[in-house]
Amino acid sequence: MAKKKRTRQSNREYHERIRRQKYQERQSAEDMHFRILPEFGNSREKPSAGPQKKTAGHQSVQNTKKQKKRVPAAGQAQRKKKEPAAAVRRTHTYEETPRRERRTSPQDMPRRKEETHTSSQNVSGKRKNRVYFDYTLVFIVLFLVLFGLLMLYTASIYTDNFFRRQCIFGALGVVAMVVFSKIDYHLYVKKPVLILIIAGSIISVLLVKTPLGVNLNGATRWIKIGPAQFQPAEIFKIGVILVNAFLINKLSRIIDRIQVIAVFALMAILEMLLILKVTDNLSSGLIIGLITVLMVFVAYPGYKWFIVGGIGMAGVATAYIQYVLHYADPNDNFRYVRIFAWLAPEKLADQSKVYQTSQALYSIGSGGLWGKGLGAGIQKMILPEAMNDMIFAIICEELGMIGACLVLVMFAILLYRLMFIAKNSKDLLGGMIVTGIFAHLMLQVILNVGVVTNLLPSTGVILPFISYGGTALILLMAEVGIALNVSRQIDFETPKLVRRKKQK
Asked: Could you tell me the end-to-end alpha-carbon distance of the chain, in angstroms, rounded to an integer?
């Protein structure tokens, strides 16, 4: 087969095609470099590679016009038929095309779609990998646990060494915190899990009346299963928090109705009565009832009914205290004794009944501003329950008011972090769970410090993370783990207004 002869026209088209391919390669490199830059407006910028120079297409058109004069008349008719299409094809080069049009040209569309898809996948992958974690909350909890171990060692060094057992409980608490921080909190409101939580909480409290119940210090509030001994009221508190959060999340659209508020008030009363009648533990019953009240208070949009209820509860408490002081016999009930020791200790014939309160006040007063020094306190040898309910008095004696205020500041930071997580939670369920944990810790700190300083009647409430108690420490750290799981799902990438719309 004979080789086709190359004419001048085909030669020009060949070189034009080569120049076009080189320009496309150069332009693709520029697009790869500038593809992340935004395109402002509709301005059409010309490329920097000599836009003012005459292009190859123009030269080819001029050469074609010059050659028209040399072509004979016979062939000129044929050239006129072919030249317009070729001229248009050659003059529409990529060098004259604006930058914005070049990026959206049909030849570059498949490549640009792939690049956009890949970049969006990378951005979404980065967002998914970015997980918020509240390291401040973890640091505060670990500091309080270690500080509690130190104070427990100094408080029990002359009596019984509770330090080793509390170290074991602390290690188990850290494991519980890590495990619960990995479990999605939405799992707790699944129907089978929720039924298991409700049944387990109620059954654990009722087991106190079985042979598993243990009587300590004249009260049957513990159960013992093998080597493990714990208070079922602590388990009941976690169950109440999760159940209340589930109900508030379900009834969020009608939470402002008085019928719903009445149902929650009835639930709080029944929970208090269950703990009080079965375990005879008024302090735990009050904490559980107030947890329900505070969770509904945060979810409720108004204040009217809570102000009315607060005034009513204050009136009932005042009437009860006046009845005890004027008409009741202190020997009839140990709760009467506590009220007398709080307001009128001189009316008690047996002053040993106010011994714990008076010794706690002596400890606080002897510590002064700076304290006697770590391990130098002497009240721990005579103060009852120095490692449990009254450990705050030992802190005041050995570290002074400065040390006690620093501990309270650490608790304030802990509560602030919980409030921050509840406010920025992914949904209402997570916010209500963390609100319940916040209420639980706040109430226990207020009650313990109030009892030690004689601002409140004596109750058996421990100081969280510091007092001795295996069950309380492990379950409190498990609650912190749940709060950490809520914080891990906070979305700070999405604007706050959009997050609020999603929650609604």
From this structure: 79
pLDDT(371) > 90: no
DSSP string, 436-498: HHHHHHHHHHHHHHHHHTTSS-----PPTTTSS-HHHHHHHHHHHHHHHHHHHT---SS-HHH
> Shortest CA distance to 363 belongs to which of 406, 397, 407?
397
Sheet containing 219-225: give its strands across.
213-216, 219-225, 228-230
Q: Which residue has the tokens 């120079």?
A: 53
Place of tokens 């093998």: 226
Quickly list H helices, 251-368.
258-279, 282-299, 304-326, 334-343, 355-367
Helices in 35-157 by DSSP H: which ranges? 56-68, 73-91, 99-103, 109-129, 135-155
Cβ atoms of 469 and 145 within 8 Å: the answer is no
**Dihedral of alpha carbons 298, 304, 308, 310, sign:** positive
Among 394, 395, 421, residue whose Cα is nearest residue 408 = 395
Task: Give residue-wise pLDDT tens across range 1-19.
Answer: 455 555 666 777 788 888 8
Q: Report d(CA 442, CA 411) in Å as an integer.
A: 8
213 sits in which H/E element: strand 213-216
Phi (first) and psi of residue 230, to 5 degrees:
-150, 165
Torsion angle of C-alpha atoms 161, 162, 166, 168, degrees rounded to 10: 60
Render pLDDT for 135-170 as a digit per residue (tens, 0 to 9): 899 999 999 999 999 998 888 777 667 788 889 999
The residue whose two tokens read 């040209």 is 105
Residues 414 and 445: their CA atoms lie apart, in Å, by: 11
What amino acid occupies position 302?
A: G
Report the pLDDT averaged over residues 80-95.
44
Supply φ then ψ for residue 216, to 5 degrees.
-130, 130
What single-letter DSSP state applies at residue 131? -
pTM of this structure: 0.71
Query: What interhelical angle do 391-423 and 470-488 show, nearest 10?
Result: 20
Tokens linked to 350? 């047996």
